[in-house]
Structure to design on (352 residues):
C-alpha cells in the first residue's frame, strides 16, 4: 500500500478536529510535515499526541524542503489562494478548507493551477458528508416526497471565538474576509445547491446585530432556484439555542434534518384548510455511525488512490463563493442579485 506523505498548513481548530485525526486513522497516510506560525497552536498539536516528522513556521520553507503528496490547507481565509497555488505547483493534491478563496479572481487562479499541474483539489464542505443529509438526499432523489418547492437551512451557534477557534482571526476583517456568512452560510449555500441544483438569484440581509466585531454575525438570504422552488437561509454567530438543520418541503411531504436531535425524518400526507390532516411520519436516519468530519476524511483519504476528481471540488467551491459574494452585494445595494456563472467578476467578500 502506498503511503502518502501528508502536509498540513495551519494547525488550528479545524486541523485538530478534522484533518489531522483523519490522516492518523487512515492506513495510507503518514504525518510528514506541519506548518504553523503560532508556537502555541503548534504546541497544542503535540499536546494531543500527534507527531509530525518535521515542523515549520513558514509553509514556503516546508514546500521547499519536503516532497509531499497531499496537503491540507487549514490557514485563515485570506491565505487560501496563495497557499493553494503554491502547493499545486509543488505537485500536491489538496484538501482546501472553505471558502475556496475570497474573490472569484483568486478562485480562478486555483482552478488554473490545478488544470496546469493536473493535481486534484477537494473543498471542505463537510455537511455533505453528514449521514442525516445523505439519507435525506437519497429519499429526495427517490421521489419519496415529490418535487421540492421550498428548502430552508438554519446553521447557528454562539460564535467561533472563544470556545472553538485557537485564535480570534475569525473576527479580523482583513484576514477572514467576512463573518458568519463566510463561516456558516457558505455551508448552507453549498447544501442548498447539492440538494436542489443551481441557485439563480440571491437576496440577502447581512448584519452585525450583537457582537462587538468588525464582521457580520448574522445573515438571512432568500434564494430562487427557478420558477418552482425557493429557498431560505438563516445563519449566525449569536444563537445559544434553537433549531439547526435543514427542511425540504415538496408536493407530497417534507423532510427535516435536525442536527440537534441527530435525526432525519420524513412526513407525508395531507393538511386540509379546515385543519384536518392525515400524516404519516418515518425516520430516515438517527444518530451517527461516523461523525461528519470522520466521513469526510475517510472519503478523501480513500479517494487518493483512485485518480478520480474529488467531490466537492474546485467547481463547487467557485459556485458557492459566487453565491457568498452575491449575498454581500445584495445586502450592500438593497436588491436581488442574479447569479451569472459566466461572469469573471473578482469582487472581494466584505462584511457590509
Amino acid at each position: 500500500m502506498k503511503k502518502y506523505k501528508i502536509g498540513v498548513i495551519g494547525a488550528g481548530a479545524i486541523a485538530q478536529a478534522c484533518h489531522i485525526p483523519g490522516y492518523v486513522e487512515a492506513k495510507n497516510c503518514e504525518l510528514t510535515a506541519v506548518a504553523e506560525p503560532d508556537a502555541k497552536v503548534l504546541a497544542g498539536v503535540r499536546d494531543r499526541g500527534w507527531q509530525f516528522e518535521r515542523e515549520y513556521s513558514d509553509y514556503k520553507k516546508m514546500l521547499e524542503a519536503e516532497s509531499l503528496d497531499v496537503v491540507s490547507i487549514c490557514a485563515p481565509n485570506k491565505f487560501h489562494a496563495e497557499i493553494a497555488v503554491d502547493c499545486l505547483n509543488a505537485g500536491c493534491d489538496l484538501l482546501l478548507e472553505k471558502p475556496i478563496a475570497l474573490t472569484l479572481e483568486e478562485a480562478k487562479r486555483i482552478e488554473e493551477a490545478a488544470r496546469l499541474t493536473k493535481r486534484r483539489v477537494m473543498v471542505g464542505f463537510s455537511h455533505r458528508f453528514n449521514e442525516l443529509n445523505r439519507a435525506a438526499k437519497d429519499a429526495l432523489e427517490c421521489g419519496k416526497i415529490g418535487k421540492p418547492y421550498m428548502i430552508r437551512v438554519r446553521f447557528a451557534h454562539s460564535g467561533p471565538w472563544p470556545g472553538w477557534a485557537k485564535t480570534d482571526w475569525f473576527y479580523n476583517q482583513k484576514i477572514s474576509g467576512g463573518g458568519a456568512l463566510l463561516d456558516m452560510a457558505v455551508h448552507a449555500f453549498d447544501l442548498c445547491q447539492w440538494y436542489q441544483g443551481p441557485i439563480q438569484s440571491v437576496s440577502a440581509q447581512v448584519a452585525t446585530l450583537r457582537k462587538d466585531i468588525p464582521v457580520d454575525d448574522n445573515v438571512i438570504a432568500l434564494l430562487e432556484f427557478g420558477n418552482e422552488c425557493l429557498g431560505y437561509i438563516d445563519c449566525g454567530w449569536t444563537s445559544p439555542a434553537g433549531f439547526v438543520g435543514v427542511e425540504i418541503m415538496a408536493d407530497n411531504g417534507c423532510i427535516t434534518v435536525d442536527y440537534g436531535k441527530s435525526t432525519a425524518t420524513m412526513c407525508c400526507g395531507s393538511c386540509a384548510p379546515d385543519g384536518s390532516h392525515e400524516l404519516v411520519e418515518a425516520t430516515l436516519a438517527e444518530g451517527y455511525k461516523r461523525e461528519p468530519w470522520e466521513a469526510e476524511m475517510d472519503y478523501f483519504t480513500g479517494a487518493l488512490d483512485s485518480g478520480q476528481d474529488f467531490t466537492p471540488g474546485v467547481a463547487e467551491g467557485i459556485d458557492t463563493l459566487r453565491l457568498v459574494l452575491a449575498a454581500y452585494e445584495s445586502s450592500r445595494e438593497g436588491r436581488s442579485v442574479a447569479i451569472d456563472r459566466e461572469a469573471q467578476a473578482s469582487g472581494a467578500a466584505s462584511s457590509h
Notes: The mean pLDDT is 95. Residues 31 and 310 are 21 Å apart (CA to CA). The two ends are 50 Å apart (CA to CA). The first helix runs from residue 13 to 25.
